Amino acid sequence: MAALAPGEKAPDFTSKNQNGETISLKDFTGKNVILYFYPKDDTPGCTAEACDFRDNYQALTGKGFEVIGVSADDEKSHKKFETKYTLPFNLIADTDKKIVEKYGVWVEKNMYGKKYMGIARTTFVINTEGIIEHVINKVDTKNSTQQVLDLLA
């Protein structure tokens, strides 16, 4: 599936978070959502991105945003990641890759000439009606919050 674009309805999903709770995108209707997809828990880039959202979480929630991270890691991995870095937001387990496929971020990657399938680090900014307002494909992991705020300015 092709990546989604601004103006499109964000596909709903239902999956478990790091606490084993069932979370759906529709649970956040009426709120702005930063839905970010990342390759793997507790790796350098993914940790930098998660910690940047953590460090700016109050500023984001103060502007009416919820932050939701999604990767193909399981609930147990997400729980370890959340605990280790004191992450204050939902991390969604997408072990069957249905969410990453709906959002078009499950892509062929190439590392050192070896091709494999993986998650393209991507951030979607979704408005209160569930419409995608912005898509960030070139995520700056250390400044991911600022990238979002710059788009909203």
TrEMBL record:
Superkingdom, taxonomy of origin? Bacteria
| Keyword Cell division tagged | no
Its EC number(s): 1.11.1.24
This entry's Gene Ontology molecular function terms read:
thioredoxin peroxidase activity
Q: Name one GO biological process term.
A: cell redox homeostasis
Single GO cellular component term: cytoplasm
Q: Which reaction does it catalyse?
A: a hydroperoxide + [thioredoxin]-dithiol = an alcohol + [thioredoxin]-disulfide + H2O
Which residue numbers delimit the Thioredoxin domain?
4-153
The enzyme's main class, written as a single word, is: oxidoreductase
Active site residues per record = 46 (cysteine sulfenic acid (-soh) intermediate)
Mind telling me which CDD domains this protein's record contains? PRX_BCP
> Which UniProt keywords are given for this protein, alphabetically ordered?
Antioxidant, Disulfide bond, Oxidoreductase, Peroxidase, Redox-active center
UniProt-listed InterPro entries = AhpC/TSA, Peroxiredoxin_AhpC-typ, Peroxiredoxin_BCP/PrxQ, Thioredoxin-like_sf, Thioredoxin_domain
Similarity comment: family membership = Belongs to the peroxiredoxin family. BCP/PrxQ subfamily.
Q: How does it assemble?
A: Monomer.
Q: What does this protein do?
A: Thiol-specific peroxidase that catalyzes the reduction of hydrogen peroxide and organic hydroperoxides to water and alcohols, respectively. Plays a role in cell protection against oxidative stress by detoxifying peroxides and as sensor of hydrogen peroxide-mediated signaling events.
Q: Which NCBIfam families match?
A: PRK09437.1
By what name is this protein known?
thioredoxin-dependent peroxiredoxin
The record lists the lineage as:
Bacteria, Pseudomonadati, Bacteroidota, Sphingobacteriia, Sphingobacteriales
| Gene from which this protein is expressed | bcp
